[in-house]
Amino acid sequence: MKLTTRQLTLCAVLTALALGLSTLENLFPVTLVIPLPGVKLGLANIVTVFALYQLGPLPALCILAAIVVWIFVDNFGNNGGAVMHTKWFRDVPITYTGETVLTERGFMLLDEDTVSTVDLEMEGTAFDLALLDKDYIRVTVDLSNVSRTGVQTVTSVIYGYTEEYFRQNITVSDRTPSVITINVAELYHKTVDVRCEISGNVAEGYSAGELQVSPTEIEVRGDQEDVDAVSYAKVTLDLGEDATSTVTGELPIQFYDANDQLLENTSLQTTEETIQVTLPVYVTRELQLTMNFVESAGARMYNVDWGIEPSTILVSGPADVLNSMDSIVLDDFNLAELGSTTNYSYAIPIPEGCENLSGVTRATLRISFKDMQRTTVTATNFILENAPEDRTVDLLTEQLAVSIFGTSGDVGAITSDNILVTVDLADFGSAVGTYTVPAEVTVVGHDVGVSGGTYQVRVTISEQTSDQPAEPDTPAGETPDTGDETT
Fold it and tell me: Taking CA 23 as the corner, what is the angle to CA 17 and CA 24, rounded to the nearest 5 degrees?
């Protein structure tokens, strides 16, 4: 097949276009999107297909052969290896390490006259260089060997990459500047106070607590001229408008001179990057003082006159604590234990994190019964419970003096028939002999209490003979008619 001049020219143009597209697609590696080895767009194949359609099979085959030869030479034409290319990456940032060691020696690194970025010429295959980005490159300079002040050069420059692949396939062939220059000065330091300025306000009915600043002072390091100019450090806490809850924050530090002028554009170093500031915002509430009264038979709240002085106190504290409170309980008070003493003093417990704005730390309870009568009644009704089945139990106590109390009406209506003494023998199942046994005294039919401490009776327990049947639990005396039973 003989080609015309026009066809030969077109074939040459298409071949050049195919090679150009092959080189172009190396600059945009598909593996960044589709992580499969050897994946390519195949842009050069577009030209091959066009040549096959426009010129016929033979020219298309020639163009395809040219593409294959180009790719082969690019990957294996350098003594069996890929052809290497170079590419410049500008303004790669330098990371300085070992500044802690520098500080321990009393030195500091100054920004002035210190190289912060470097231009690097990287060598690798066209494919690898297309993959590489400036952000993947790491340039590190170690300062731990610096032992003097002034402008000087360092030789300990380490190149690295974020991906292991580049470390194996990319090398640095040139660098600008070729020498890394640093400026080291003597480190001065002093300690300054930290002040906090508050902006905004708290809402009406709320109050601000004590401002908490941590730390309250910091060490400032740097050039002597810069350090000497610092009078104090300051942070600003913004409460906003009508703050109703505690405000806290990690605040940036600013430095001021003795004339309260802000110092800007300094190369100062500090022991702290931020200052933690907390301002508690409290709500103020008037809380009622009260008692937790414990009632029992004969001692009821309706029969008591009482009052607490002061009756209320003013408390400031976190809203989430005080908004759910309307009173403070001083203590428990058992009305059955109320005797002739009518005044009782209690410390006022303040909720945690709150402040007593009234300043009063103790409260006095004044309490007395309206109508209280105490007397002694002789009990004659006894009940034995849980008596041993194989034992004979004889109750030696026939009468028991019981102290009772209550209103005069209730106490005046009590007779011996209203007093019931229960003796529980559950703990004497295998006992034999005479014992003193605790007894429970109950007043039946009236709201009357029993005082006088623990009551006891005497019983004799003996073994039962074979011809003597076991006796069931029976009352030792006549059991009174039961009604509402009060202990």
Answer: 85
